[in-house]
Amino acid sequence: MSRRKRVSGEGLDLKRDSFVLITIMAYVISLIYRIVLIYIIGEDGVAYFSIANETYIILSFVLSYAFSESVSALIRYRMKRGQYRNAERVLHVSQIIAIITGLVCTLLLLLLNRFFVEKIVNLPMSSLPVKMMAPAFVFVMLNGVYKGYFQGNGSKVPSIYSKVIETAVIFAGGCLGAYFSFRYGQKVSALLQNPQYAPAYGAMGASIGFTVAGLLSLLYMMFLHLMYKRKYYRQLLQDNAKNLDSKSHIVRLLIRMGLPFAVYGVAFHCIPFLDACLFFKLSPDYVQKITDWGNYYGKQITVCGILGGLVLVLCISPVKRIVQMAEHEEYRAVRDKIGLLIHQTAIFIVPTTIFTALFAEHFLDSVFKGSNMQTAKWISWGSISMVLYVFAFLFISILMRLRKMRHILACGAISLVIHVLITAILLLKSNMNIMALVLGNILFYGVLMVLCFWVLQRTFQYRQEWIHSIAFTIVSAAVAGIIVMLLDKVLAGAFGSLVSMLVCIPIGIVVYMILLVVTRSVTSHEAEEMIGGWIFQALAGLLHFL
After folding, report:
1. pTM of the model
2. How far apart are CA 261 and CA 264, in angstroms?
């Protein structure tokens, strides 16, 4: 094995490692933030905050992300052709559109927030955090413009660090705002004899973080733009464009190119918001309804989403290489690489799912007070959606880079319609309540994964090898899960759930890895290519299974 192949196989280049580490940090901060919020404003407060948070996420993707991608594409096209004045013109037109769009969104949320939360969501007290979050969209839109501008110039670093600033400020500002607003809300609750004002005011304080984060991220992007202004001016002197694009032409291009990404944002990031609307509209009224939604949103969605996201970050790096080989029509290599990607992802996500299901209650008991049995049940079932989510979005990432947006949108639309119909039926015809949402999410990601995999198969004439890649991995993880489950029964009674979890999970990982080596589920070639493959190589050498 050559030295070059070792380095390439492990894939530890500086740029990708920085992206992975920063993304993981953002996910971890998001997890900690929701946990801290539960301590500060309670489950009811998190329920109210969820409406503002999901509105922010949807509009950010629909507007800012779509705008950023279209600006990036237009500027990249012009920069490659030396049309620097046209690129600057795209920036200026985009800034005007961003300010107008951001102001319109802010005004609509401020003026119509009562109608929005009462008629659409059926959670009136959430109007306070929605109103507080509304001013963020002017900053969010302008941030999207600058992100697209820098990416069009070939640099993703400003976008990455802008995300770090945004995440950190949302955490710090949100926690401080929630703490002081909740204390004020307690006085309002005592005065009005309504205990729900305290968590609602706390959620309003948490929403301050969105506006502050948007402003600081925008100032950072503007500072970077000023730093590189001399370079841009030198480029303008080298401009070779014969004609300048008209403003109306740029606007039409921005809308046409951004629309598919806006639809994508709605289709794939509206599930929690839709679930909130369905749950509060269709499920029977009962005392713990708001609290149950807060537990589901703050604990179940958070734990499963963050763990699935971390695995996705670890496994997504081969996607770029697959697309590059596809563009060079190296289809046999593409099929091999897809098989390796699926196997590598299964190796990470299957044990993550099993251990999450087994230790959900231990984790919740270690972090939160009170009875967590019901929430642990939701997490255990919801962990199934982690597997489906990770594979679905890996396939989507490949298809998106191949510019198959129509196929992606079709798969998303079918999955979304099925999800809404089945979830609504379960809420209306049964007393499952939150469990209906959990099953609906499993169905959504399951249908999405199957449809996207089918498109991928037809695109590359790919056939999946099931025994080596999937079956052995599942059996190895299941055996490791059974062993640690039996060990946990002994340790939990003697030393407590936290100690048992901290001991059992590392033991389970070691047992799982040994089983993969013993069953030869990981070949030497796969170990060279995957992240952390050197551990399997060292273990195989130690066990004489090379």
Report:
1. 0.86
2. 5
